[in-house]
């Protein structure tokens, strides 16, 4: 029955409530036993969704399993963002309260899936009853003690991303009296102020460029609006930080390049004044 539900969910694609996703795997075997029902991916954001399906009402075992599988996958593939998704026929008030508490530290979505019969045909109607994504970035080792790498490793595995990062560094140094270098780690590229790693600007690998996490030193929402107005993909992560996807074509576009340069310069000035 469970496999049948997974097949039906794939066929009718009720996950439009999460965006335009593609199926990566189903019944994915986990290292601590058990199987993840569905693994979905958003190609644009390179975000993965670990989906646990449940017949009937939510219960403790499925909540635990959903979070456990999310934790396993995010540690296995730290370059992606990950979100736990619990799908059930009935998300009870009791468990909705519990899920809301958990969502303070786990990016979590709860979907209630209702079957409706119309003229002899059954349709599944998904409703998001909880959406708490990106409350906290997963606890990747984003610190000065992250495992080191070198330029050659990035040039071999992510040449396009590295080119974007180096062009962004040139913009940073062009507008700053203090000159920065790149700090290469196995998971991300940060900045070096002399010999000191700094994380107010961090570059994460993406298929088409680099995802920049930036602390602009002010409300990020106006910057998000400006970046989006140029056609770029940007969002605020919290009250202090924003994320923007930057590609080589963005840096080749003069209007986009000017906005990128300005907000990177703002972040540098905030860092130097703190």
Explain this structure to me?
By secondary structure, the protein is of the alpha+beta class. The chain folds into two domains: 2-132, 3-Layer(aba) Sandwich (Trna Endonuclease, Chain: A, domain 1); 151-273, Aspartate Aminotransferase, domain 1. It contains eight helices and twelve strands. The strands form two sheets. A six-stranded mixed beta sheet has the order 1-2-3-4-5-6. The chain has a six-stranded antiparallel beta sheet with strand order 7-8-9-10-12-11. β9 and β10 form a beta hairpin. The protein is elongated and about 70 Å long. The model is unreliable at 1-14 and 134-141 (pLDDT under 50).
Which structural traits does this protein have?
elongated, alpha+beta, 6-stranded mixed sheet, Trna Endonuclease, Chain: A, domain 1, 2 domains, disordered N terminus, 6-stranded antiparallel sheet, Aspartate Aminotransferase, domain 1, 274 residues
Helical residues, percent: 25-40%
Q: How many β-strand runs? A: 12
Q: What Rg do the Cα atoms give?
A: 21 Å
Q: How many domains is the backbone divided into?
A: 2
Beta-strand content bin: 25-35%
According to CATH, what is the topology of the largest domain? Trna Endonuclease, Chain: A, domain 1
What is the distance, rounded to the nearest whole angstrom, between the alpha carbons of the first and last residues?
Answer: 58 Å
Structural class: alpha+beta
Side by side, the strands of the main sheet go 1-2-3-4-5-6
Number of helices: 8
Largest sheet: 6 strands, mixed
What is the CATH architecture descriptor of the largest domain? 3-Layer(aba) Sandwich
Give average pLDDT, whole number. 81
